Amino acid sequence: NNCIERPQGYNVSFHYNSKVEQHHFGKTHPMKPWRLQLTKQLVLGYGLEYAMDMYQTRPATKQEIAIFHDRGYLDFLELVTPNNVDEYRDEQNKYNFGIEFYDCPVFDGMWDYISLYSGATMDAARKVCSGQSNIAINWSGGLHHAKKSSASGFCYVNDIVLAIQYMMQYYSRILYIDIDVHHGDGVEQAFHSTNRVMTLSYHKYAPNEFFPGTGGLDETGPKDTYNEGAHHSLNVPLKDGIDDHEYKELFKVVTGHVIEAYKPQAIVIQCGADSLGGDRLGRFNLNITAHGYCVEFVKATHLPLLIIGGGGYTPRNVARTWTHETALCVGAQLHDDLPWHIPYRRAFSGERNGDGKLYPDLSTVSLKQNQNTAEELHTIVKNVHWEMRYVHS
Ligand code: VJV
Ligand code: CA
Ligand code: ZN
To answer: How many CB atoms lie within 10 A of CB 70?
Structure first.
């Protein structure tokens, strides 16, 4: 069963604190931290812990988070609770908060949750920078919408920005790739004016219809050519229903061009699993293996790699995808039959839940027609290629 090769001198590390999975955004809120428990159970069920360094992470301190975020905003995050939230009327509006039926609710243990996912991403980043890990993974992070002084789209603190800021002490050029179905606007904005971070997001794009509405093809950084950040934001705006074949081809060609031109020294990839077929909030028709292809592709560059989670609103498929991608990192092939002796096996059983398989067909779940034309995809490739004229390593 567990015949996983562990090559000498090649380290994958897994960073996690199980306290993070206990938190709740609210009764029917789509963001469910327990999907992380499901993921961990599958990872352990397949025995992948024998092929990686497993770390229990510490929460980030307020000091560490303040490297990017505004002090006043952090004071609010730390002090507000569902019980005292009425005393914070002004702050609530200012920082884009609510209680029930809001994207970013105030919930019990919110600061604990925030410091846990941020701490895990920072721990992972430190292992990459110290050279102790070739690949470091934190599935609890990837909250790419958070801004310097406001919450947005289920994201409170931007752990990705914190990690990249830390990594900038070690690497002069970092490529950030974002395959969540939503635009990675918070990360793009944070590094808007620097050429030391290139951001590249693949997402569903439809202003006024799909969150957050930014990330068009012409959004490539400051339009002032003397600004160093010019041409260092890249976006791949897509329509509903993109399939495995088109997505993989596009990812290969576009990411390939960017890596060749920019020559990053390290890569950070946000692997939001809401780009899968059948996701509760998503619009694409991707299978787990097509999502995983992106991880395989960046791994093959042999650059220092930080892998983080993100969105993903059909928990059983989030767990499947992130388990598959953990396995890709360590070079293990997993059996399509899920291990029997895992807790929550029922979450994966029955026809509706993927029949106890690791790789159920997700491309047909949503029945979303592929709205992307070959011509549009070609325009995207052409544009990115053209943009690369301005990029020098
Ligand atoms: O579309 C929006 C914004 C609104 C205003 C707020 N209402 C609640 C929803 C519409 C315009 N927000 C998106 C945010 C998506 C965030 C994605 C995060 C990530 O995956 O990129 C990274 C982790 C949105 N789509 C769906 C919902 N919000 C949604 C929010 C709820 C909900 C159902 C759907 C909040 C509470 C409850 N149900 C109970
Ligand atoms: Ca994205
Ligand atoms: Zn998302």
So the answer is: 14
